UniProtKB/TrEMBL annotation:
It comes from Paraburkholderia sartisoli. PROSITE patterns: GATASE_TYPE_2, SIS. Its EC number is 2.6.1.16. This is Glutamine--fructose-6-phosphate aminotransferase [isomerizing]. It is an enzyme of class 2 (transferase). One of its GO terms (molecular function) is carbohydrate derivative binding.
Length: 605
């Protein structure tokens, strides 16, 4: 999964391409590169550092041109080294950038080797470049159309050829690609955000489309080669730099933005109405008798938390499944299911594919809980609820998670009300609790200095266990994911009752055990599980509600949460875990906002 940008213009286009790459770094940052046509063979600059380094290179080498393509890479085939960085050349005549995975690249490579093409990278992408080159007879559009017929897998590509200096050709199948329409200039990008400031007019290409951009014209052909008119949509994407303010990293800033993000996400009305989810929601909610939630990573954990709410508040059977598993297994479709997809980006390939799979099985009612209103996921679902977290830049998701929890709680309360399980007084109580959340979160954020003190200990560990029970088990999972993702400490989460069935064998004096201890019905059970850890010498780090009577002693460290928060407690208890991961990562000196091997948006499977 990578980001691509391309442009044909009558001005030096390199600064626009570089700025586009900066905005697409959320799609991967293993390497980046740009290639321009400026009379004669294409010229390129590539870097295995960040876009800032590429920018320096292009300035030093005066790389300029009116036609260009650029790429930011998340490595799939081939290590993140310069040789594998895009743009990839074919015989110094053609340059190409690619987002996706070509599944039949081995057979294509053999075929192209037979034609005398030499391969200099380990990428699957190089076959596309040579394939198009081998088919080129003076018309790049035609060559690309012929080439894509032979590709199996996912791709969004942008290509330029030295013999057509004012042309960029693009194609997509399985990976996103938008055309940006300018005045006397035209653009291509993986995401409209990359072109903010250059245009607000976009064509969202459809599966199988091939397009040709020249200065005055954009031509689109569908998968059958027929010229087609695609709808032009106006999208005012905000591309301005997001300021870091007083924070060290975007992750820290985003953790502290949670009170605001949550207050923006809580519906303004004092009642839970189906219309919060779209015009068709009242009818759809009346036709369902169960939920199927599909998501990945942190969004999956918000789904797991929601299952507890949906089954206890709305009494509606709920199944939660990892999207990448659901899409490939035989499942039994149920026309009375509401399929709920949860995603910060709305572009996660596995979740999108799972949604399409569910639809292909006949599921009519679909709902997205998403942070990006223009995303493919929102466009594909019947109903939607937008979280208003604002742009999340840190790869580790924080405010997107807590706002998803708010959205899903609202869903549970709404379905509970419709199904007769939430009466007016309970509804008023839920509304009050939601409204109090931002203030409660501010009190939790004030625990930061105590958490910093713990993070010093954690930064010297290589393993950690996280425990939770019931509604807070998914919160333990999320805490462990945060820690491993940004501090590179191996962390596992378990429902505390499961400890004795295996993981207890891992517990020694060297094993910190983080415990989420709200004052709920399972507290006494959880205390017994904590004793099991202490008896084996394990060091406990407990986030306990104020009224739990868990006190610090030898081997037992306690941070007291400011208040007990009932049914919405997961939204508060996850915040200290975010801060613990963040400060541990800072102590270890990792690249917190861009942890190794990851990307913000996972747009390949
Ligand atoms: O954009 P999405 O919410 O669909 O992304 C899903 C996961 O890739 C994402 O939550 C990932 O697990 C985060 N980096 C975790 O912090």
């Amino acid at each position: 999964m990578c980001g691509i940008v391309g442009a044909v213009a009558q001005r030096n286009i390199v600064p626009v391409l570089i700025e586009g790459l900066r905005r697409l770094e959320y799609r991967g940052y293993d390497s980046c590169g740009v290639a321009v046509l400026a009379g004669g063979e294409p010229r390129r600059a590539r870097s295995v550092a960040r876009v800032a380094d590429l920018d320096e290179q292009v300035r030093e080498t005066h790389l300029e041109g009116f036609t260009g393509i650029a790429h930011t890479r998340w490595a799939t085939h081939g290590a993140p080294v310069t040789n594998n960085a895009h743009p990839i050349f074919s015989r110094n005549a053609l340059a190409l950038v690619h987002n996706g995975i070509i599944e039949n690249y081995e057979s294509l490579r053999e075929m192209l080797r037979g034609k005398g093409y030499e391969f200099v990278s380990q990428t699957d992408t190089e076959v596309i470049a040579h394939l198009i080159h081998s088919l080129y007879r003076g018309d790049l559009f035609v060559a690309v159309r012929e080439a894509v017929q032979q590709l199996h897998g996912a791709y969004a590509i942008a290509v330029e050829h030295k013999d057509q200096p004012n042309t960029v050709v693009g194609a997509r199948q399985g990976s996103p690609l938008v055309v940006g329409l300018g005045q006397g200039e035209n653009f291509l990008a993986s995401d409209a955000l990359a072109l903010a400031g250059s245009t607000e007019h976009f064509i969202f290409l459809e599966e199988g489309d091939v397009c040709e951009l020249t200065l005055e014209r954009v031509r689109v052909a569908d998968r059958d080669g027929r010229d087609v008119e695609r709808e032009v949509r106006t999208v005012a994407a905000y591309g301005g730099a997001v300021e870091l303010g007083p924070y060290r990293h975007f992750m820290q800033k985003e953790i502290f933005e949670q009170p605001r993000a949550i207050s923006d996400t809580i519906p303004q009305a004092d009642s839970f109405d189906a219309s919060l989810f779209g015009d068709a929601a009242a009818r759809a909610f009346g036709e369902i008798d169960n939920l199927l939630i599909l998501a990945c990573g942190t969004s999956y954990y918000s789904g797991l938390t929601a299952k507890y709410w949906l089954e206890s508040i709305a009494k509606i059977p709920t199944q939660v499944e990892i999207a990448s598993e659901y899409r490939y297994r035989d499942s039994v479709p149920n026309p009375k299911s509401l399929v709920v997809v949860i995603s910060q980006s709305g572009e996660t390939a596995d979740t999108l594919a799972a949604l399409k799979h569910a639809q292909s099985l006949g599921h009519r009612h679909t709902l997205s809980v998403c942070n990006v209103g223009t995303s493919a996921m929102v466009r594909l679902t019947e109903l939607s609820f937008l979280t208003h977290a604002g742009r999340e830049i840190g790869v580790a998701s924080t405010k997107a998670f807590t706002t998803q929890l708010v959205a899903l709680f609202v869903l549970a309360a709404t379905l509970g009300k419709l199904r007769g399980h939430v009466d007016a007084s309970l509804e008023a109580q839920y509304v009050r609790q939601l409204r109090h959340l931002p203030a409660a979160l501010n009190s939790v954020l004030a625990l930061e200095p105590q958490i910093i003190a713990w993070s010093e200990d954690f930064s010297r560990k290589e393993n950690a266990l996280f425990l939770g029970r019931g509604l807070h088990y998914p919160i333990a999972l999320e805490g462990a994911l945060k820690l491993k993702e940004i501090s590179y400490i191996h962390a596992e989460a378990y429902p505390a009752g499961e400890l004795k069935h295996g993981p207890l064998a891992l517990v020694t004096e060297a094993m910190p055990v983080v415990t989420v201890a709200p004052n709920d019905a399972l507290l006494e059970k959880l205390k017994s599980n904590m004793q099991e850890v202490r008896a084996r010498g394990g060091e406990l780090y407990v986030f306990a509600d104020s009224d739990t009577r868990i006190v610090s002693e030898e081997g037992l460290h306690v941070i007291r949460m400011p208040e007990h928060y009932g049914v919405l407690s997961p939204i508060l208890h996850v915040v200290p875990l975010q801060l613990l991961a963040y400060h541990t990562a800072c102590s270890r000196g990792t690249d917190v906002d861009k942890p190794r091997n990851l990307a913000k948006s996972v747009t390949v499977e």
